[in-house]
Amino acid sequence: MAEKFRKLSLKLSQLAKNGFNRTFVRSRTSFPARSYFAGRPKLWGALGAATGAAGLLLYALETSVDASSDCVHPPHQGWNHTGLLAALDKESVRRGYFVYKEVCSSCHSLQYIAYRNLVGVCMTESEAKSEAEAITVQDGPNEEGNYFDRPGKLSDRFPSPYPNEDAARSANNGAYPPDLSYIVSGRKGGEDYVFALLTGYCEPPAGFSLRDGQYFNPYFSGGAISMGQVIDNEVVTYADSEVAASAAQIAKDVVTFLKWTSEPEADERRLLLIKVVMISAILAGLSYYIKRFKWSSLKSRKIFFIPELEAQAAKEAAEVAEACSKAKMEECNRCEEQNMKKKE
User: Fold this and answer.
1) What are the angstrom distances between the C-alpha of 246 and each of 162, 231, 319?
2) Is the full-model pTM beyond 0.70?
C-alpha cells in the first residue's frame, strides 16, 4: 500500500511540475475562462496539485477504512447474473425461496416482499396463492370492531417470525435478526459477503474468546456472531434430484433469492435498457440521415466573389436603369404632346 501511495505522489508531482514549466499560447478565438487560465501556468499547476491532493486524500481514506476492518474480505464469486445483459436464474431463485422458507424464515423476515411478487418469477399464480394461504393473517377491524384471523392472500407480505423486536432479541440472546429484504444491497460486498458469511464458519483461533451462544465467523464484523451455522450439506432436500444439496449450492441458491428480493425489478430494467439502446440507435440513424438530407444543399453550396462579374453586373444594371429612365421620359413627352393637341 505504501508503494502505491509513493507512485501516485510521484505522478501527481510530475504533472504539477510539467504544469509550471509549460508555455501557453493564447488563442484569439477562446472562451473567457480559457483566456483567463491560458496566460497563468502557475494557476493551472496549483489547480492540478489541489485536485491531485483531494484525490489522494479520498483514496487514503477509503484504503484506511478497508485496512482497519475487523473482518476478512469476502472473495469474489462468479455469479451469472452480474453482467449487463445477464438475468437471474429463475430455478435458483425458486430453490432459494425453498431454502429461505425451510431454514431462514424461522428467524429472519422479508417484510418488504409480498407473495404477489413471486408470480411470474419463480412461481405461477396458483402456486403463489397456495403459499399465501398457508399463513394466517390478523385482519380487521370488522363491522363489530373486532380483529379476526384469515388465510393469507397474494397482497399480503411475508410474515415476521416474531411479534416485535424485543421478542426477537429475547429468543436470540440479545441479537436482533435483520430483515433480509435488502440484505444483499445493504451490505458491502453484496452477494459475495452473504455467501461467504453462510459458508465461512470455522473454529476460532487461539486466544479468541466467545460468549455463550456465539459462533466464530471471520467474515462477520468482530468475528463473533450469534447466528449458528444453518447452511450445511443436505440441510434441505431439493425436488430436482439432479441438483446436489451441498452447502455451497444451498448458499448460492438462497443468495440468488435474496439478490432478487433486493432488486425485484432488475430484469425489467435490463430489458428496458435493451429497448432504449435499440430505439436510440434507430432514432440516431434517422436524425443523422435527416440532418444530412436537409443541410446537404447548404453545406455543399459555394459562394465566389469575382470583381469582374460584379463590375459587369453593375454596368448592366446602370444601363437598364438608364433605358428605363429614357423610356419614362419619352412617355412623358408623348403625354405632353397629346395634351397640347387637345388644347389647340
Assistant:
1) 29, 9, 105
2) no
pLDDT digits (tens, 9 = 90+) for 95-115: 999 999 999 999 999 999 999
What's the CA angle centered on 100, arms 96 and 103, to 5 degrees?
Answer: 125
As to burial, measured by CB atoms within 10 angstroms (0-12 exposed, 13-18 middle, 19+ buried), residue 207 is exposed
Cα gap 273→263, rounded to integer Å: 16
What pLDDT digit, counting tens, does each position of 121-163 carry?
A: 889 999 999 999 999 998 888 888 888 899 999 999 999 999 9
- Residues 269 and 262: beta-carbon distance below 8 Å: no
Q: Which three cell numbers stand for residue 56?
A: 489522494
- Can you tell me the distance from the alpha carbon of 22 to that of 44, in angstroms, rounded to the nearest whole number? 10
Q: How does the average pLDDT of the chain come out, rounded? A: 85
Return the residue matching grid coordinates 385482519: 139
State how far Cα 228 lies from the chain centre.
35
What amino acid occupies position 141? P
Which residues, at least 6 apart from 16, have a Cβ–Cβ distance to it below 8 Å?
45, 48, 49, 52
